[in-house]
Amino acid sequence: MVDIGLFTQIVINGLLLGGIYVTIGVGFSLAFGVLEVVDFAVGEYVMVGAFMGAVLAPLFGAEGVFVIPIVLVVFFAVGALIQPLIHHVTTGDRPHPLLMGLVFTFGLATFLRGSVLTIFGPNSQDVPSSLLTGGIEVPGLGTFPVVRTVTAVFGVTGLAVFMYYLYRTRGGMAIRAIAEDRTNARLMGININRYQSIAYGAYAALTGSAGVFIGMTFNASPGMGLQYTAFAFFMVVLAGMGYLPGVIVAGIVLGLTQSFTAVYISGNAVLLVLFAIIYVVLLVSPAGILGKGEWAT
Amino acid sequence: MPRKHDDRRTFLKSVGAAATTVGLAGCAGLGGGPERDTFLLGAVTSLSGDLRFGGGVTQRGYDMWADTINREQGGIEIGGDTYEVEVEYADAQSNPSAGADAASQMINDGADALLGPYSSNVTLSVCPIAEQNSIPHITGSAESPQIWQEGYEYSFGTIPTVSIIGNEATSALLNLEPQPESVYVTGVNEPFSEATAVSMRTAAEDAGVTVENYELFPRDTDYTNVVSAAQNADPDLHLHGGHIGSHVDLVSAASQLGYTPNGFLMHYGVNTGSYKEGAGAQAPYTFGATVWIPSVDRSGGVLFDSPQAYADAAEAAYGSAPDYTQAGSTAAGIVYQEALKELNAAPPLSQDDKDELIGILEEIEVNTFYGNVTFEVGGEYHHNNINTQTLLIQLGEDGSPTIVGPEDAATGEPNYPVPAWDER
């Protein structure tokens, strides 16, 4: 017999976990949609963001949440600087541009992980979050952990802001034009390098900031990146490559599947179930759950 | 133009020289390798990869022994002469197969004996290499019972198996008042953590306490689900086997969901800096298990006068407080030192010397700052030093551990039941 209290709590856990994944999936999906880069470094941006929270917050005597503006600015600047390098290795006469992008970002991921290990050592670091401790108990439903709820809200807000920018501003229109057809966009007078740098910078900023939230939820650890890279891939495939609204659905499916499998089947079966879902989606609906990803066009 | 018999003479000379060289090399091999005036210990540990933190702990432990004996005694005294100790490291890369390769490399380099790796997984791959090459191997850091149940003749361990540590720490916790009636047992799905969780479950079952659930999870699981299921079962105690990262994730999720059993017992590493840094404000009041901390009341011993003297020396050398893994690693060196003295053979050791050393190790009893070290022979945990006392510790508000059990070893009162998260 299913315990209703436990069941509703698992739903809450799954939704909030999905919210955490949304924060990562949004930027990753944007990078793929606009830049056509499968960014292997996404998980390491999360990790570096978490470490920035762990270092900067105590340095300023502040909570992790208050250093997010700094992280946003730093990551945007770094992302905008890295993008031309990615553009350089994925364009021109080079064969297999997608593979070149993968190799480049894989190297970047290895570099970031190695640097953090060398500087901070292998230990986990706490990201101060005393303002976001504990949970909000809703009678009849369950407990909403504050830090996870705030993280999920951040992810959904980030997605909304991206969507507004892409579909309601001239800059967003330019980015969509680039995603549609680079050559035509260039002929229309769009500064491709500039908008690609903006898009990659925004992706890096959002992902790095998500890292601070994830650091507050769990902790900052040099080995944490790989799992988020794997989940980002999962999200984008499930959402449909480059289809931003699908990210929310993918995040919820990922979070709920993980939670229900862990509690009602076995914690050891989580990855098995998740990848079974991926394979089924790839076979049945390669354009994602909603059928609106890039592969459908 | 050279004459034919000249060529034959040159050939014969060459063959003779080669045969002499091979023969001399063979004699040298029988004698234990090239001449050396130091004892060469080959240390296999993880200097890179995920286990780098633990590898560094063992390295500090081994270095602490070698540096101290070389500095204070000039090395090991054999027949009136002293021979310095040299510890040469090979990186196991946190990987069992790389660990086996590293052990082979140390043996090829002519090591007199091996010092073992961090983690049970890697140790399980090094033990067969030591066995095949008939070389003594003492590890200061490996707790899986499987290592000792295999019955290896050339491998020894100074840290007792987790089957004992986990069981005894749980038993001590179950004796606290109010006595718990139910426990919830979780662990990470890998050999050491599973053995820990099993030992905790066994202790609870033996004490007649209800085990609400026992489950293993992958390392990267989301602990909110583990905690939600545990919270629903409402146990008196939560017992968890794993490494430090999983402990941190568990208490973080517990504080977020307001899950407060009367106490959390977690093993390994609760009293390490890594746990305190990672868990932050959630670290206080956690129960843990150890066989040694600096405040253990003990005096006398080879090389270091007391646990505190060792801790002070380690802090001065490395700037961090030692835990029992580091202490056990130093104790492994001390055991070698005393066994080599008894063997009374100068380096390099011959194969006969190494075989004789095994016999000495089986009978040795060494009084160290870490405790009396003796190895079980022929029992369930063959060659494991099970002659230790497990201590139940609890972290205080400042993160420092206090021994709270068993009763005859306690140095302070436990804070039990632990306060709820919002009352801390």
TrEMBL record, chain A:
InterPro entries: ABC_BtuC-like, ABC_transp_permease, BCAA_transport_permease. It comes from Halopenitus persicus. This is Amino acid/amide ABC transporter membrane protein 1, HAAT family. Belongs to the binding-protein-dependent transport system permease family. LivHM subfamily. The lineage of its organism: Archaea, Methanobacteriati, Methanobacteriota, Stenosarchaea group, Halobacteria. It is found in: Cell membrane. Keywords: Amino-acid transport, Cell membrane, Membrane, Transmembrane, Transmembrane helix, Transport. It comes from the Archaea. GO terms for cellular component: plasma membrane. The chain crosses the membrane at residues 6-35, 42-60, 66-86, 98-121, 141-167, 198-218, 230-257, 269-290. The keyword Hydrolase does not apply. Gene3D superfamilies: ABC transporter involved in vitamin B12 uptake, BtuC. GO terms for biological process: amino acid transport. It is a multi-pass membrane protein. GO terms for molecular function: transmembrane transporter activity.
From TrEMBL, chain B:
Residues 398-424 are annotated as: Disordered. It comes from Halopenitus persicus. This is Amino acid/amide ABC transporter substrate-binding protein, HAAT family. The lineage of its organism: Archaea, Methanobacteriati, Methanobacteriota, Stenosarchaea group, Halobacteria. Pfam families: Peripla_BP_6. Gene3D superfamilies: 3.40.50.2300. SUPFAM superfamilies: Periplasmic binding protein-like I. PROSITE patterns: PROKAR_LIPOPROTEIN, TAT. The keyword Heme does not apply. Residues 41-384 form the Leucine-binding protein domain. It comes from the Archaea. PANTHER family: ABC TRANSPORTER SUBSTRATE-BINDING PROTEIN, LEUCINE-SPECIFIC-BINDING PROTEIN. Keywords: Signal. The keyword Signal applies.
